[in-house]
C-alpha cells in the first residue's frame, strides 16, 4: 500500500500527458490509496457540494427498476454505488481495484441507510470485469473513466456485461464551453484546488496535481461520446451539469 509520503506524480510526469504513462494503472492505484481517507471530504468541499447532486442525476438517467442489477465500476468510496442502492434495485455491485477505497465503501454501507439491500463490493479492474457476459442491466462509472489505463477497453467491458436494453452511465469532468466559465473553472481547478486539497489530505503523492491535469489532457465531450458509439452503444446522450463542469453520458445496448 502506498502512503501520503510517497510521490506518485511529479511535476515532470505531469508536464507530459499523464494518460500516456506506461505504468498509469499502478500509479492510479497508489495515488488513490494515499488519498483515500480524505477523498470524500475533498470531493464535497471542492465541488461545492455538487458532487452528490451529480450522482443523483446519474441515477435518474439510468432509470433503475426493482428487478435491475447495477454494476458501479471504479466505485471508489461508494458514493454512486450507494446512490443506486437508495433506488432499491434488485442488486448493486461496486467494483474497484484500490483496496483502501473499497474498505471505506464497505464501512459506509454498514451505516443506517434507506435501502432494502446493502451494496456488494468486490475487488476488480474496469478493463477486465469479474462479471459474466450480459449479466447486468446498468453499468455506471463516476469520474473514473479518465483514470483507466485504456478507456476504450473499459467501455468495451461495460458493453460486454450489459444485457440487451442495458444502460451505461458515465459521469466525468469536462471543460465548460462558455469562455468565461471555462476560464474561471480552469483557474479554480489548476490553481486553487491543488493547493487546498493537498493541504487537507496532507498528500505528497501528487494526486491533486494529477487530477486537474488529467481533466485537461483527457478527450473532449465528443471524443468520449464517440468512444461509447465505437463500442456499440446507441442513443448516446450528453447532459452538462453545473455549467458544463461535469457531464452525464448515457448509452444503450441494443
Biggest β-sheet description: 7 strands, mixed
Low-confidence stretches are 1-5
Principal-axis shape: globular
| Gyration radius, in Å | 17 Å
Q: What is the mean pLDDT?
A: 94
Q: Which band does the percent of strand residues land in?
A: 15-25%
N-to-C order of helices and strands = HHHEHEHEEHEHHHEE
What is the CATH top level name? Alpha Beta
Summarize the structure.
With 254 residues, this protein is an alpha/beta fold.
Write the layout of secondary structure elements.
Blueprint: H1 11-15, H2 24-46, H3 51-62, E1 69-73, H4 79-85, E2 91-96, H5 99-109, E3 120-123, E4 136-142, H6 151-161, E5 162-173, H7 179-201, H8 207-217, H9 221-230, E6 234-241, E7 246-252
Parallel strand pairs: 1-2, 1-4, 2-3, 4-5
Antiparallel strand pairs: 5-7, 6-7
Structure, explained:
The model is unreliable at 1-5 (pLDDT under 50). The protein is globular. The protein is an alpha/beta fold and 254 residues long. It has a single domain (11-252), classed as Rossmann fold, CATH 3.40.50.150. The chain has helices at residues 11-15, 24-46, 51-62, 79-85, 99-109, 151-161, 179-201, 207-217, 221-230; strands spanning 69-73, 91-96, 120-123, 136-142, 162-173, 234-241, 246-252.
What are its keywords?
single chain, 254 residues, alpha/beta, Rossmann fold, seven-stranded mixed β-sheet, 9 helices, 7 strands, 19% strand, globular, disordered N terminus
Amino acid at each position: 500500500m502506498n502512503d501520503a509520503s510517497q510521490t506518485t506524480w511529479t511535476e515532470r510526469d505531469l508536464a507530459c500527458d499523464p494518460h500516456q504513462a506506461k505504468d498509469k494503472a499502478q500509479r492510479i492505484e497508489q495515488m488513490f490509496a494515499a488519498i483515500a481517507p480524505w477523498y470524500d471530504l475533498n470531493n464535497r468541499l471542492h465541488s461545492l457540494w455538487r458532487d452528490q447532486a451529480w450522482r443523483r442525476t446519474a441515477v435518474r438517467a439510468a432509470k433503475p427498476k426493482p428487478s435491475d442489477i447495477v454494476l458501479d465500476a471504479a466505485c471508489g468510496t461508494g458514493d454512486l454505488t450507494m446512490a443506486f442502492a437508495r433506488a432499491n434495485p434488485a442488486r448493486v455491485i461496486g467494483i474497484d481495484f484500490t483496496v483502501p477505497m473499497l474498505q471505506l465503501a464497505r464501512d459506509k454501507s454498514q451505516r443506517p441507510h434507506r435501502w432494502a439491500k446493502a451494496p456488494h463490493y468486490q475487488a476488480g479492474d474496469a478493463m477486465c470485469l469479474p462479471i459474466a457476459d450480459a449479466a447486468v442491466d446498468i453499468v455506471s462509472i463516476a469520474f473514473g473513466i479518465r483514470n483507466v489505463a485504456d478507456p476504450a477497453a473499459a467501455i468495451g467491458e461495460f458493453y460486454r456485461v450489459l444485457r440487451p436494453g442495458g444502460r451505461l452511465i458515465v459521469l466525468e469532468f469536462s471543460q465548460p464551453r462558455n469562455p468565461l466559465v471555462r476560464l474561471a473553472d480552469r483557474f479554480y481547478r489548476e490553481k486553487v484546488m491543488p493547493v487546498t486539497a493537498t493541504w487537507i489530505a496532507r498528500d505528497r503523492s501528487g494526486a491533486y496535481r494529477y487530477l486537474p491535469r488529467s481533466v485537461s489532457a483527457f478527450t473532449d465531450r465528443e471524443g468520449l461520446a464517440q468512444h461509447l458509439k465505437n463500442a456499440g452503444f446507441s442513443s448516446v446522450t450528453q447532459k452538462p451539469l453545473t455549467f458544463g463542469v461535469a457531464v452525464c453520458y448515457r448509452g444503450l445496448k441494443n
